[in-house]
Amino acid sequence: xxxxxxxxxxxxxxxxxxxxxxxxxxxxxxxxxxxxxxxxxxxxxxxxxxxxxxxxxxxxxxxxxxxxxxxxxxxxxxxxxxxxxxxxxxxxxxxxxxxxxxxxxxxxxxxxxxxxxxxxxxxxxxxxxxxxxxxxxxxxxxxxxxxxxxxxxxxxxxxxxxxxxxxxxxxxxxxxxxxxxxxxxxxxxxxxxxxxxxxxxxxxxxxxxxxxxxxxxxxxxxxxxxxxxxxxxxxxxxxxxxxxxxxxxxxxxxxxxxxxxxxxxxxxxxxxxxxxxxxxxxxxxx
Length: 286
Fold this sequence. Notes:
single chain, Endonuclease/exonuclease/phosphatase family protein, 6 helices, five-stranded mixed beta sheet, Endo/exonuclease/phosphatase, alpha+beta, GPI-anchor_lipid_remodeler
């Protein structure tokens, strides 16, 4: 499948229809293993565009609408990174349009990295021009995966919620890409907080377009009792990180073994990684 996808990019005129808004089959996805620590990664991949300077927003802006052969090389580099993790949250993916060579980038990264489960959420459908999407990659079989449209004046923001482990006491992962405005973020986080309020083990991952202190003190997330990364976890812009816009926020029940900003400047954002373990008592539910 991976070779077919890669070949399809090199021959855009003879494209095959991509898989859109769907997930992989479950036949070869192993069950969740609660005794293991879980390696998490969140990455805004900017649809595979390699941005290394502010002037690239101008000189490489055409790559947001037209195909570029270097994009597949960037995706392969991203795949070489994400294969080291168990659960990956992806933002700014393309689900299969002209600019991506009609390749579903979430599926491509799953195939290229050898991660058996993938799910793509199509948030803004511009037909053949662009398929703005979030993505989930997982080595574990989820209990279920649901998609949610986040509220906002302009449509096109979404969240993926994946539950793992015990159905009565699951590990809940939320993948999202928030709006730029503070008012929009507040409405979206109010919606998300309602979805996670009854769960004990929660991970919020994604490009939240704001600093953790602001999110956890001046939005509805202040009621969620989540633990942020250190204030120094700057991820944007990737060539000179000055702002902490990408986050992995976790419930106090989850043991953080390690966290870091990964020095992997391919997108305009740097990826964020965290290694967590479920509480010891969680094993008794299995």
